[in-house]
Amino acid sequence: MKVIPLGISSGRPTLSRGLSAIAIQLEGVLVLLDCGEGTQWQLARAGLRPTSKLESVFITHLHGDHLTGLPGLLGTMTLENRPAPLHIFGPVGIREYLEQMRKLALVRPRFELRIREVEAPGLLFEGAGYRVIADELVHRVRAFGYRLEEHDRPGRFDAEKADALGVDGPSRGRLLRGESVAARDGRMVRPEELVGPLRPGVKVAYCTDTVPCDGAVRLARGADLLVHEATYLDSHVEEAHERGHSTAAQAAEIARQAQVKRLLLTHFSPRYDNLEGHLAEARPIFAETELAEELTAVELVPAG
Amino acid sequence: MKVIPLGISSGRPTLSRGLSAIAIQLEGVLVLLDCGEGTQWQLARAGLRPTSKLESVFITHLHGDHLTGLPGLLGTMTLENRPAPLHIFGPVGIREYLEQMRKLALVRPRFELRIREVEAPGLLFEGAGYRVIADELVHRVRAFGYRLEEHDRPGRFDAEKADALGVDGPSRGRLLRGESVAARDGRMVRPEELVGPLRPGVKVAYCTDTVPCDGAVRLARGADLLVHEATYLDSHVEEAHERGHSTAAQAAEIARQAQVKRLLLTHFSPRYDNLEGHLAEARPIFAETELAEELTAVELVPAG
Fold this sequence. Notes:
Largest interface: A-B, 35 and 35 residues
Order of helices and strands of chain A: EEEHHEHEHEEEEHHEEHEHEHHEHEE
Helix content of chain A: 25-40%
Oligomer: homodimer
Strand content of chain A: 25-35%
Distance between the termini of chain A: 15 Å
Radius of gyration of chain A: 22 Å
CATH class of the largest domain in chain A: Alpha Beta
Number of strands of chain A: 16
Number of helices of chain A: 11
Largest sheet of chain A: 7 strands, mixed
CATH architecture of the largest domain in chain A: 4-Layer Sandwich
């Protein structure tokens, strides 16, 4: 799985940072988290192909900088004759937004939009090889974070041992499905003798915009990667709270509590030209912290 | 006056071309023609300051690629504490679009939007040092082209001759206002003896999206610069007509009929990587044809 930040600026773009969006590239499928203005350019610059690959879009909240790239992206996929339906998720209001865009003829997709408004925490979507879970964040407006989990994969099959025991092709399929089969000598072979343990899929949590909150910890619990907003530095911790945002140190504290493997900071206030301060404040709390960089993929490999 | 193309692609962006928008930089004031997605970046890249300088926005028609940069631009100017009202013009529907954006809380400008829907050809707006005239274009939806005219400036004052005649400061002001004054020797001096002819302001016409039409010729008549769409080449002339667009040659024919000084082609279909064909087809019809280039200003100097 590749996690590709497309826009890392908060509120308004800077000359070097775009508005919120993250692409997640899975096997043959693309997922988009938020869709700020300019997202369609960034997808193209990243060499990604939303028209053929994008299966689902998850909008965290209805602030323009997380959303206004959607009409343009839908328009471009229409011009490129996208055939497949697109799943779009977001807080209540996302349906009305797209409906108004359609009424004004600003969005006229010739493919199906399957819009679902997120109303409560829980399993939201089963996609092609992944599922997405939503949980509540705490911002100035209703906001949801998302956790994307790759499906677990079957354990590794010990082909050498299977050969030695004389287990044939059809029997191998049955072993992988959890059944016991007979070996060449008649002995029953149990699946766990030839099939390793389930290999858990990669898990990524995305939490923005939010103050530090329990929902973020729940979403991030044990994840391979937490992408968390870090709009401010400690010197602006009060402004962060008032505006419904987090500091870099608060993001790191969430990562520590949730025992994630890695933390990727994003959604930086345009006031910070240099982001070294974010790293400096986060790493003492959570060492495996990195800064999101636009178009720089974070590659995640399943354990085992 | 500087005319600065910000986006020259038709329908969807390419890796090297953005969506429709043109900035016009006048003395101390900025005017925007169309506002496709990404316009706020291009304004920043061009070193322009919409928050302090942008006085008016003219939208040609309500297709997303000419409009969807507006919410983001309004949002950014709000974050930057713009105080001044902003004039926004466009076909019927522009008010509803901005109203819906406001209802959904996607646009919450803390400065006044003075929205006026363009319903008929004629003088539309008197700005700071310029006026804007609208006329009908012919597209798949209602579309207007715009003609921006700098105010004429007073003729040059012959200070040397005034000194010789002994015409003092207050008298010079009266001459500039068209009154006769007494010279040192008592003789009456008429304004035309010391004040040259009115110097006409620069005139620019902007015509997109449209098939070749009378409205475009009327808008462009005698202009210093016509910016006209040239979505297609001659080989796609039928598709151009069906889709409500023009070819490069048709744009050149409009320029010739309207007797403009220069023609700037824009709004190119993404199918054309190279735009030399557009020049090759337009120049035999109208020699003073150039291709719009993003962030490359066309400087226009008033005659006289």
